[in-house]
Amino acid sequence: MDLVSSLFFRLAVESDLADVVANEEASYEVPWRRQMFLDCFAEQFEFWVIEYQGQVVGHIIWQHVLDESHLLNICIVRTHQGKGWGREAMSFWLDSSINDDKSVLLLEVRFSNEPAHSLYLSLGFREVGVRKNYYRLPDDGKEDGRVMAKTLCSSESS
Ligand SMILES: CC(C)(COP(=O)(O)OP(=O)(O)OC[C@H]1O[C@@H](n2cnc3c(N)ncnc32)[C@H](O)[C@@H]1OP(=O)(O)O)[C@@H](O)C(=O)NCCC(=O)NCCS
CATH number, domain at 22? Predict the structure, then answer.
């Protein structure tokens, strides 16, 4: 069976938060807290959950600012990573941004997050800057983040 085509994207609702927070905590060393997801509803960010066979297996959140779309969070629960679902979630964001007439996609990624960095490079994102001490580490230290960008052409589709 084609697992990727079995994914279903829908806008998150507050009752998803238990699953979202559990997936986040299982997948990130320094996860977002519940309140940060609640803030995304308040700010009316694009907050989507990814379902597989009726279960919430990931989430993706972005913010539109003028002609830019800024990725705030992407997560595939650890037990389902490496199946092409992260790439599918990125395609979903790219396609949504094209449909919404955005021309620039932006994201940040930790220097140590090679899987995510490699995914973004493969999709045509390029490093455009560095945010010093942008990320917390589990021991309360700090880590730099790469700022990556991709310009969308009106004819582009992922
Ligand atoms: C980053 C993340 C979204 C990728 O999702 P995924 O479903 O595991 O990735 P995919 O199976 O779609 O793989 C897509 C690409 O990612 C890269 N990748 C994935 N796992 C990798 C690994 N262990 N090492 C190196 N590259 C890897 C590869 O470029 C891969 O492309 P390929 O399969 O053609 O080689 C997912 O691992 C995740 O949620 N991680 C925890 C949260 C996180 O770090 N989010 C990103 C914050 S910036």
Answer: 3.40.630.30
| Residue 83 maps to a domain | yes
Strand pairing partners for 68?
65, 104
Interval between CA 96 and ligand 1 midpoint (Å): 20
Ligand 1 site-directed mutation target among 50, 57, 81, 113, most atoms within 8 Å of CB: 81
Residue 36 inside a domain? The answer is yes
In angstroms, rounded to a whole number, what is the distance separating the alpha carbons of residues 60 and 9?
9
Strand partners, 109: 146
Q: Judge if the beta carbon of residue 104 lies within 6 A of ligand 1.
A: no
Show pLDDT as tens, one digit a residue, over the chain (158 residues): 567 889 999 999 999 999 999 999 999 999 999 999 999 999 999 999 999 999 999 999 999 999 999 999 999 999 999 999 999 999 999 999 999 999 999 999 999 999 999 999 999 999 999 999 999 999 989 999 999 999 997 666 44
To test the pocket of ligand 1, the residue of 20, 56, 76, 147 to mutate (highest count of ligand atoms within 8 Å of its CB) is 76
Domain tally, the chain: 1
pTM for the full predicted model: 0.95
Alpha-carbon distance of 69 to 93, in angstroms, equals 9
Nearest to 50 by CA among 95, 96, 4, 18: 4
Residue 82 CB less than 6 A away from ligand 1: yes
